[in-house]
Amino acid sequence: MSLFDWFANRQKSHPVTKTQPEREIADGLWSKCEACNALTFTKDLRANQMVCLECGHHLRITSDERIQQLIDEDTWVPMDDNLVACDPLEFRDRKAYCDRIQEYQTKTGLQDAVQTGIGELDGLSLALGVMDFRFMGGSMGSVVGEKLTRLIERATCDRLPLVIICASGGARMQEGMLSLMQMAKTSAALDQHRASRLLYIPVLTHPTTGGVTASFAMLGDIILAEPKATIGFAGRRVVEQTLREKLPDDFQTSEYLLSHGFVDAIVPRPQLKETLAQLIRIHAQMPMASDVSKVTAHLHPATVEQVTRS
């Protein structure tokens, strides 16, 4: 009898009995940081808005999560949820474009790569657009451009501040020139918003590249970014081959752009809502005379007199 047969027969005659049930770990109980590999309770991570408690790495979040973080409860009114991309070019790569759209709609529960709407942020009304990288890399096609343009025009008409959370790989190649023209369309709408002396704040998250960077992402009055986000137009390799020189290690990061004046501030995600609220309040128009007493109640009497005269 071989040694293997002896062990097999012994296991049959002396079966191993489990004295204690195996301990099960609930799926999704722990989350692993992409940067430092630290394990964190998912509940604690969500409480910190998906920012690693060990290293501060900002994990990618969905548009629904972003809206929940920024908008006051029960104040969100979505816009243009029924817009769906068509396939005028009948484009096909590994699969038909229309099939790819349906696949991502099923996977994400979204109609396209951006959600837009009106809501309140710390009691302040604003127009908000949130891009979602899960939907074809947040690429900007006709639907994304149209929804953002309608949002900007609504903000202009209602005299609302505008915030767009950017996360995109750029223009959607499956729509060709129709995708590229969205850069001009959104930029023209933002020019009307600016001419009305209204505030626009883009928030650049990881990643913000391509045609989105070349249009509405860089046209803000105040440009904010999350820490260590990749922000740029062309890819690093393309830039190096074009310039024929080695680029810095931190090239196309939030920190690099801040040091070169392309970004006004880097704001960690847990501080974003408070920062946006402060900026909107600072840039709000002066109140009507009937409301001056409410606004100036806490000011020095000499300051109150000066404000009242003005």
CATH C-level name of the largest domain? Alpha Beta
Outline:
globular
Query: What's the total count of β strands?
Result: 9
- CA radius of gyration: 26 Å
Question: Low-confidence stretches at least 5 residues in length (pLDDT < 50)?
Answer: 286-292
Main sheet characteristics: 7 strands, mixed
Spatial order of the strands forming the largest sheet: 3-4-5-6-7-8-9
Number of domains: 2
Total of helices: 12
Nearest-integer average pLDDT: 88
Classification by helices and strands: alpha/beta
Write up what this structure looks like.
The chain is of the alpha/beta class. The protein folds into 2 domains: 25-59, no CATH class; 61-309, 2-enoyl-CoA Hydratase, Chain A, domain 1. It is built from 12 helices and 9 strands. The strands form 2 sheets. Strands 3-4-5-6-7-8-9 form a 7-stranded mixed beta sheet, with helices on both faces. A two-stranded antiparallel sheet has the order 1-2. The chain is globular and about 85 Å long. It starts with a helix and ends with a helix. Mean pLDDT is 88; it is low at 286-292.
